[in-house]
Amino acid sequence: MLTDSPQPPASGKALPQPELREIGVDQVLRALGEPVRLGIVRALARAQQPMNCAAFGLTVSKSTSTHHFKVLRESGIIAQYDRGTARYSELRSAELEQRFPGLLAAVLAAA
Questions:
Q1: Quick one: which of 2, 65, 86, 102 could link to 16 by a disulfide (CB 3.0–4.6 Å)?
Q2: What pLDDT score does 81 carry?
Q3: What architecture is domain 22-110?
Q4: What residues does the HTH arsR-type domain cover (predicted)?
């Protein structure tokens, strides 16, 4: 079951995402196994704040970018919200740490 982001910004509309208890380690690892998606997660981890999806500078088409962000969101790794005509993404690092202690840090350190 996908739910709205727990705390969307006051001026933004959250996109559906899985609840913490619904996130599976297999989904997370599968999503992070793709280089473009891993790059998105690395950028979000470095930024430590929401990023406009256009700021990633991805070298793939817009439809492919949209697909990668959707996979990350539906696997529970990121939360997304729309503000005006821009879409923002943020890493659900605290929630992932609660669900799978050390997993995200280990993947990012190994990458």
A1: 2
A2: 94
A3: Orthogonal Bundle (1.10)
A4: 17-111
Mind giving me the DSSP string for 57-93? --SS-HHHHHHHHHHHHHTTSEEEEEETTEEEEEE-H
The one-character DSSP state at 55 is G
Q: For residues 82 and 80, what is the distance between their CA atoms, to the nearest angstrom? A: 7
Helix axes 35-47, 25-32, angle to 10 degrees: 100
Instruction: Kindly report the pTM of this predicted structure.
Output: 0.85
Mean pLDDT of 22-31: 94
H/E segment holding residue 14: strand 13-14
